[in-house]
Amino acid sequence: MPFQIDGALYPDVEPPSELATLGDQVDFLARLCAAADFGLLPWPETVQEIRRQAWRAAVDACRLLTSPTYHLLRRWQGLAPLPYLGQQLAYIRSDPNLAYV
User: Fold this and answer.
1) From CA 72, how far away is CA 68, in angstroms rounded?
2) pLDDT at residue 90 in the model
């Protein structure tokens, strides 16, 4: 059974029935990362799907450097880390537990 695309990630357009191209996959990942960064977690089946090796090229191409979720996807795919360009809140910069997040 093919994995189900969460239509909630496509509020602006009709959700695709499949992710046939690299561009479709990158768009899906960008939408998924943005939603997850705001607390809308993906379905377990979606997480299982995007952790597959077949998604490695799409994860590498996405380059959503401001997204903590994107950096997690890179780690799951075994890709080299890239610089995080997102906001780092001043009140947590000196928190020693930040290294474990």
Assistant:
1) 6
2) 62
